[in-house]
Amino acid sequence: MRDRKIVKLLERFTKAELKELKDFVYSPFFNKDKNINKLYDYIYKHLNDELSPSMSFSATNAFKQLFPSKSYDKNTITRLLSKLHDLVEQFMIHSETKKDIFAMNLRLLDQYMKNGNTSLFKSWFKKLKKQQSKQNYRDEIYYQNNYSLASIYSQYVSIYEDTGSADINLQEINDAFDLYYLYKKMLLFSNMKNRERSVAHTYNYTFIEPIMAFVEAEGQVDEPSIIIWYKALRLLNEINETNYNELKVLLDKYNDVLSIKIQRVFYTYLENTSRQVFSNEQLYKELFELYRIQLDKQIIYTNGYLPLLIFRNIVKVALHLKKWTWLEAFFQENKAKLQPQHKEKEEVYNLCLAMLYFEQEKYEQSLDEINKIINFRNINIYTQLEERRVRLKNYYELGYYGPFEDLVNSFRRLLTAKKGKIPTIHLQANRDFITIIHQIYKSSIETKDQDKGIKIAEEMEAIEILPEKAWLMKKLAVLNYIIK
Question: How far apart are the first and last CA of the chain?
């Protein structure tokens, strides 16, 4: 039974959705067959019982539950399961439709028009126009609803009020459609440009030149949300500091007309392009400012939770800038806000806290946090690699040379085991890190040799991607000073 389409579909429903679905199935408006009600109850009973033997949860037993005095009829149970499946699909459509109140009101307005209820149509149309004027966010749905409202009104005028000389609202339809089209095109073009930056694909940007020229023409478009999308597209098309700052300024100025979700998209564009606009310390300062703004405005959260990758990025930027006091508060405020569906959220939190303690030279506390990471099945390979690098640095700083040597060997074995499973660039970067830190370690305990220190420094400079390079350079510099 568990391999049936209806069961696989229902397994993805929440408990609240299943309860609401029961009310839907039991409603005589949607379903008058009480056998379908019983069939739903049978499936619901077994659905959340993972210990239920597969043999007890079967089409045969379902039939017995519905028709205890009849012999099993495959066609009958198949037909009922198919009807229930249709009902579930109707419920899904019904539930999704209920979420868009304005779209439902537009359908009602359309029905008033088609039924000739002119007085109800006029009062309802006036109500919907007022609702639109009070909308805070100027997004795709807003412009689409404006166009739909203008279209329905035009049909009404053409049927009931056309004198053969008036406009019948065609100009308003045209203008509303232009804004909807411009918004949609700017959004789509920007998403395409942003996608091109990360994948090997080239898009065909239909009508992009006349559309850009239209928006650029002074006085043609006076909609901040469309202009912001235009500025975003310009930045993605030509990444420079002028375009970057223009988008950033407009985003701050007109954030009240943009939803949290859309603001997050624009800030992501700024984060991604900042790496080509700024460099070195200026880049870290800019990224920190972008993260701080989004945290203050709650833009960076998804359904109240902070994505794990963003959490790590924020920590690394703040650590680089030595924002330790700020980070301590950040950890406290966001521990409970890490996305709960991530299996490794506890391990990543402990690792990031260990990184803070390490930078504060609290090596024992740093190691304590790392030692809380015990379930490596929960964490991905990149987190495991970072955990080993931080642990190795702590062992070095604390002079734990026995554990240091053991970890160097086990780290190398891990990389060998992961060959072919992760990109070569990551494997080589970590191999280079192990090689350099081990050379520095050996230089610190063996006969002092300044030439050897210089050779290590030259080797480090020749490596294109070297994790923890700043710390390694610092340790080598201290070692060379001791040698001198």
Answer: 77
Residue 124, C-beta contacts closer than 8 angstroms, at least 6 positions apart: 105, 108, 109, 112
CA–CA dist 134, 125 (Å, integer): 14
Share of the chain above pLDDT 70, in %: 96
User: Are 100 and 144 spatial neighbours (Cβ–Cβ below 8 Å)?
Assistant: no
> What does the alpha-carbon distance between residue 310 and residue 30 come to, in Å, rounded to a whole number?
45
| Of residues 362, 357, 364, 411, the one with CA closest to residue 385 | 411
Q: 339 and 345 in contact (C-beta within 8 Å)?
A: yes
Q: How many CB atoms lie within 10 A of CB 82?
A: 12
Residues 6 or more apart whose CB falls under 8 angstroms from that of 192 comprise: 203, 205
pLDDT of residue 52: 53
**Dihedral sign, Cα of residue 299, residue 301, residue 302, residue 307:** positive
**What does DSSP assign to residue 467?**
T
Q: What would the two tokens of residue 444 be?
A: 């610190």
Question: pLDDT class for 250, splitting at 50, 70, 90?
Answer: very high
Instruction: Give the C-alpha separation, 154 to 148, whole Å.
Output: 10
CB burial of residue 373 (10 Å; 0-12, 13-18, 19+): buried
Better-predicted residue by pLDDT, 377 or 230: 230
Query: Which residues share a beta bridge with 338?
Result: 306
Q: Is the pLDDT of residue 484 over 80?
A: no
Q: How many CB atoms lie within 10 A of CB 438?
A: 18
Q: Is the pLDDT of residue 133 over 60?
A: yes
Among candidate residues 456, 316, 463, the one with its CA nearest the CA of residue 478:
456
Rounded to whole angstroms, the Cα distance separating 318 from 321 reads 5
Record the tokens describing residue 471, joined without a space.
């710390």
Contacts of 203 (CB under 8 A, 6+ apart): 192, 193, 195, 196
Instruction: Identify the three-state secondary structure at position 373.
Output: coil
